[in-house]
Amino acid sequence: MATDGPPANDYCSVCHEQFNQPCQANCSHWFCGNCIMRVWHHGPALQPCKCPLCRRLITLLVPSESMTRARDNSEVNGILLEIERYNRRFGGGSLTLLQRLRDMPFLLRRLVREMADPQRGFNLVLRARVILSIVVSIIYVLSPIDFIPEGVLGFIGFVDDILVALFFFLHIAAIYRAVLLNRHGGN
After folding, report:
1. Is the dihedral of CA 150, 154, 158, 160 positive or negative?
2. Residues 60 and 138 occupy one common structural domain
């Protein structure tokens, strides 16, 4: 299982040094916790900062496991408190559909990695909600009862199945985003 941290031999794009207290943004880029907080503090305080690499709005910061384990260190704890404050301020706001679609791969990759990790005691209720969503989506897609029947309209009949799958993935990503906000937003 891959570790929950930045790639080995990679550097922070802000300070151009090895990562120090790394955290990952919802665009999947990694930064030093202190560096990304500096980027935020140098911009408008009432708006989320933009990723220095891809320019997407950062609406969620997820600290690495090593950083959360070192919470007893006062420097690390200070950065974690800043990240929690950032997530409380910008992580729970209403996101546009485009932002949700762009965040979906990041959230689903993390969710799959976290659910597959035997060392992590994954929340049983969340696991049940994810499994129930998967089962209901599969039953709908495989059932002969459709809003737009495939037998009548051919390929166009798959549109509702594609929409159900898209809504399923968006739902799962929203559930996991709430978990991450609860975990890293100090709620």
Report:
1. negative
2. no
The domain containing residue 151 runs over which residues? 95-187
* pLDDT computed for residue 146 by the predictor: 66
User: Residue 15 sits in a domain of what CATH number?
Assistant: 3.30.40.10
Given the structure tokens 């031999």, which residue do they identify?
A: 9
- Domain boundary among the residues 93, 111, 146 is at 93
Question: What are the angstrom distances between the C-alpha of 88 and each of 64, 127, 140, 172?
Answer: 18, 24, 36, 20
Is the sign of the CA dihedral 5, 126, 82, 72 positive or negative?
A: negative
Q: Do 47 and 2 share a structural domain?
A: yes
Provide the angle, in degrees to the nearest 10, between the axes of the packed helices 124-142 and 159-184: 170
The answer to whether the CB of 130 falls within 8 A of the CB of 173 is no
Residue 63: per-residue pLDDT: 93
Q: What is the mean pLDDT of each run of 10 residues along the chain (187 residues)?
A: 71 93 93 94 86 92 88 91 90 76 86 75 72 80 67 68 82 85 73
Final residue of a domain: which of 23, 58, 93? 93
